[in-house]
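Technical note accompanying the year-one report. For the benefit of new consortium partners, we illustrate the data format agreed upon in the data management plan: each record pairs a sequence with a structure-token string. No post-processing was applied to the example shown here.
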Amino acid sequence: MEIENVLLAEAAVADIRGAMTLVGYNQRVVNSPNLPFSFKQTLIITLRGEAEAGSHAQLSVNLNSPEGDSAFAFAQQVPIPPPASKDVPSFINIAMDIPFSGNSYGTYSLKVTWREMGQESQGRDIDIFVLDPAAATPAAG
């Protein structure tokens, strides 16, 4: 299976078909008037492709601060479901709330890694920008 999308949102809801509704999609700029700060984001990972039904893969999520320190780390085995039909590839939608807290302003890096047994790992990175609204200057335009 391959990572198709890695998204951030304020919230996500899935229906019985697996379709997802996202609220506040692409919340990558955070204005925090105080330090330390804390809030939650919903991480959505969409995987697609062929895989051996009944097997497992390793999902890892790491959030690093602007200084390179680990602010959050998570790893879990994920079961791979069988495809809905022999003519349809497998799809997996994973939505999880992740805590987001820090002690500094700057660019935080969120890395998602997916690894199936016998396969090379693959990853996606998302930058999240934490700004002090008092220090922000409007862009020239």
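Partners are asked to follow this layout when depositing records. The first strand starts at residue 2 and ends at 9.
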